[in-house]
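Researcher: I'm preparing a figure for a lab meeting and need a structural model of a single chain. I don't have an experimental structure, so a prediction will have to do for now. The sequence is pasted below. Please return the structure as tokens so I can convert it later.
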Amino acid sequence: GGEEFEAEQIILASGSVPASIPVPGADRPGVLNSDGVLALEECPESVVIIGGGVIGVEFATLFRDLGKPVTIVEMLPSILYGNDPDVCRTITELLTDKGVSIHTGAKVLEIRDGLTCVFEQDGQTLTAEGAVVVLAAGRRPDTAGLGLEAAGVETERGFVTVDDELRTSVPHIYAIGDITGRQQLAHTATAQGIVAAHNAAGGHRRMDYSAVPGCIYTTPEIACVGLTEEKAKEAGHTVRTGRFSVSGNGRALAVACPDGFAKVVADADTGKVLGCHVVAPCATEFISEAVLAIRHGLTVEELGETIHAHPTVSEVLMEAAHDVEGLCCHKL
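Model: Understood. Here is the structure written out token by token.
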């Protein structure tokens, strides 16, 4: 009963769906994926979250801010693993101070009756019980029923293979967003859509992933772009960093949000900004400044010389840029 359309160019943008976790008991009532959490009509009295990535940590923040007991069970060595270690350490401390119970390096064994999550950590078998259990395992491409194989569109691990112009293996078919597996972020999908539409209309734009901001909506917010200090060193850069504490920012103090920091990673030889990592109120609002700096090869001197309105939280980036050169006059 579906409709048929014909076109010279096609852009695939079918998005993603929550990924599943092969854990015994994951199909019990009260075990929810991220879509299920968003469909809740009442706030659960307690929550166990399996997965300490972006989705898991955002939900942990939400429910804890609502006053509910929260436990995170994460298999990797830290929550938000892969982000700057200072970011991971800071948000772990802040969530712990709020009362979130965090178990890392933990392997989930099963989910029992009564919504009890059984997991192994440091050779011990432990349990965590909640009114709901949230499976925060990320998302997978939603390509079922598209007929990709019949159309000759190549995939890898379920994701649609595209080049930098967003073309698939079939020249007149493009793909954007989560199904490409590049970066599962809404703003990345939007940027890809603009590039794909331009090229479908006869242009030749290429997608640039070198400066895409990653935003995590915790309290305070997390926003990062570019390389971490470790990744910059692995890429062959001689690295210098600057750091400024949010507790030294007047606007943050005025709104009673003194936790967090800004960190700027720069090339020691050229001074170019390589990465910025921020834990601060409104961090997601001003990370675009760092995106612009990295995208256009600005130096820490240029970033530091940019006059920032006062009082604003964005001043922490300017102060961190000053600190790279040892010139931060407001550092605590």
